[in-house]
Amino acid sequence: MVKLTLDLIARGTSGYTKKKRDESMQQYLRRLTHLYLEDRSIDDVGEDISMCRNLTVLYLYDNQLNKIPSLHHNMNLTMLYLQNNDISRIENLSPLTRLQKLYLGGNCITVLEGLDKMDKLQELHVENQRLPPGEKLLFDPRSLKGIAMSLQVLNVSGNGLDSVRDMIGLRNISQFMANDNELSDMKDLAHNFGNWPYLWRLELMGNPVCHKAKYRDRIIVMAKTLEVLDGKEITETSRQFLRKWHANKETQKKKRDEIYQRSAYADLGDGLHRSAELPPVKDPARPVKSSQIPGYMMPGLPRKQFDELLARTTTMDPASREKQQTPVKAKSGVLRSKTIVMT
User: Is the pLDDT of residue 317 over 60?
Assistant: First the structure.
């Protein structure tokens, strides 16, 4: 176990800030702006560091810290390097309202929290956390909201992430590193690109999405401001070519959809026209009225009288049917046959 002491602090300065002969230790510590305390096996920072009131940059990476030290007397800090320790929780950062860069990679953090008052933070590095098997890094909405307008660089590589939707509100992101995660949905990425108008660097190597067809081309088309993808620069020539190719592809697809729709409507119209030309279907179960049966109608005789006459004739006995018909003289002098039924 190593606790930070005044001697370690004095040895953790650069050659340009060595203690002067006529300078007291308190004066010397107040003058310090940078402390290089990396890889010293430190597990306890202690209180002596509080004397460094003008400290702006603190290097504490590659030590054995299990928590973020209390630095409320070092309110001028702008850069804090704490990567590769044993820190499991983000805490004690609220007093550091001027902090611009925070390095926490290689720790044991499971939730990104405690940043809701860090409205000056520009860079956040939380890559490769030592998470339990099967778990992924979680994001506290309050912390994301607190850094939404200031954050420009975010490194979340190697944290088991399968989506980036939680980070969509970080509208000023210019560099986003998310290598070695579980990102596989191209639409999920595109949704964020539409809300990141300043994104110029993107790192996605080691994700399943990289194995999709035309992965690089599609990303360049979706992220219109991108200049570097997976460490490779995007030339303006290739960008313009891919945009034209995509626009032409969309135009062709739109034309095919229009042709298909017109064809479908035409087929539907022809079907309705042909069905209108067909004769009506008769219901075989529907009884047919006798009046609907077409037959011979006697000239000059109304249909109703003809039906009555026909009904009486069918009920007469054979003897009556054999009686002679008597000619009747019409007023016009022309003889017309008229059937006289004898009752």
Answer: no
